[in-house]
Write a structure and sequence with these properties.
- The complex is a heterodimer of chains A (114) and B (113).
- Chain A is mainly β.
- Chain A contains no helices and eleven strands.
- In chain A, the strands form two sheets. In chain A, strands 2, 4, 5, 6, 9, 10 and 11 form a seven-stranded mixed β-sheet that branches.
- In chain B, the strands form three sheets. In chain B, strands 2, 5, 6, 10, 11 and 12 form a six-stranded mixed β-sheet that branches. In chain B, strands 3-9-8-7 form a four-stranded antiparallel β-sheet, with no helix packed on it. In chain B, strands 1-4 form a two-stranded antiparallel sheet.
- Classes of the chains: A mainly beta (114), B mainly beta (113).
Amino acid sequence: DAGVIQSPRHEVTEMGQEVTLRCKPISGHNSLFWYRQTMMRGLELLIYFNNNVPIDDSGMPEDRFSAKMPNASFSTLKIQPSEPRDSAVYFCASSFGRDNQPQHFGDGTRLSIL
Amino acid sequence: AQSVTQLDSQVPVFEEAPVELRCNYSSSVSVYLFWYVQYPNQGLQLLLKYLSGSTLVESINGFEAEFNKSQTSFHLRKPSVHISDTAEYFCAVKGTGGFKTIFGAGTRLFVKA
């Protein structure tokens, strides 16, 4: 089985540019999560979806961040405009259902904003 | 609501020595408990999970964790570590009926030769 697929693996861009991160969850999983990981703040949940509907976006840091899930097999996280403090590793994870199902993580996108 | 506390941010240990990574949680509802491992430049991977039944759960690579309801703990142990166990370990809790998993801050395990 293919795992969670994220693209790109690395992104380097200049401040002010738009950044789009992409995620393909595991087929059949109906929950999708976006996380951000930094040395200073650790692993932070940004937003999660269930059945393509955003359930909780309280972790999204600012209006510059937005996320969409147009269908069950694709999600995007967009930052516009980007700032140097957005530099981090962004992870996408998916799971099936509630309760006892673990999350499956992609390998992340390492984002550097210059 | 749930919360997770990992009591050690870093644990250095010599190869073949035993190790314990500590985790305490709090929750107002019944929970499921997980340990995840993160190797460099990779995402988190499930190491083991406690759902119900026997309070001692084991992973395929020799780690084990014991659910202690009275102490609200889920410590991770391994009797003899290898260099390849060097990684960051995250304790996590999920409330029954919930979507969200709450992760601890992580413990970096350094195994020295």
